Amino acid sequence: MLVQIDDDGGVRTLTLNRPEALNAFNEALYDATTVALRDADADPDVAVVVLTGTGRAFSAGNDLVEMQARITDPDFQSGEHGFPGMIEALTALRKPLILAVNGLGVGIGATILGYADLVFMASNARLKCPFTSLGVAPEAASSYLLPRLIGRQNAAWMLLSSEWVDADEALRMGLAWKLCDPEDLMAEAGRHAAVLASRSIPSLMAVKETIVDPTRDAIAEAARREYAKFEVLLGSVANADALSDFAERKTQ
């Protein structure tokens, strides 16, 4: 099962489950996560959604082998929902979303933090937005969400540099709300999720709607700008070289 689903007292925990690929998102995982988010949103018994990963990674981002196939394979098949579907599901989610970042988060594994209501991060976790090192544009409306969340200069450094940000720096920037010892991460995220789940679900949804609704149009516009830039740069010399280097390292 690509996304493990566990319910406990109004808290639904979704666990990305491709540990052999560091929970990198291929089309199948995008589809499974989209469906899981939509199902949690529609379930009247679910008050809070927690998202985490199996193994040593939260998510290594886009599956770069599949990204290269998108460029080189004329028969490449996109998923039913794919990346756009998951972003739409995150944007439309009416229930509070808690992220428990258990390990490295790269690409969408970092930019997804912009959709969270609360982020708990293991003290040994780290984040990277590798877009410039891959020769592509930002994604997931991060060009809008990150400056809004952590300020222009912090966002510029993350999006422009392709450098790692450790957990302490993520906390300082405001990307993470609380740092936890790795062994305490899920218990701490679960404890806070249970507090929220003890409240009225319609009230939780009303609070989230009043926070998020003013941003939804701007998120959609930012995503459209990013998709347009991404399509131009995908398969460019810089991108093709980066993907080729990655493929060679995988086979060594």
From TrEMBL:
The keyword Ubl conjugation does not apply. InterPro entries: ClpP/crotonase-like_dom_sf, ECH/Chromodomain_protein, Enoyl-CoA_hydra/iso. Its main location: other. Pfam families: ECH_1. It is found in: Peroxisome. GO terms for molecular function: delta(3)-delta(2)-enoyl-CoA isomerase activity. Keywords: Isomerase, Peroxisome. The keyword Transmembrane does not apply. This is Enoyl-CoA hydratase. It comes from Mycolicibacterium arabiense. The lineage of its organism: Bacteria, Bacillati, Actinomycetota, Actinomycetes, Mycobacteriales.
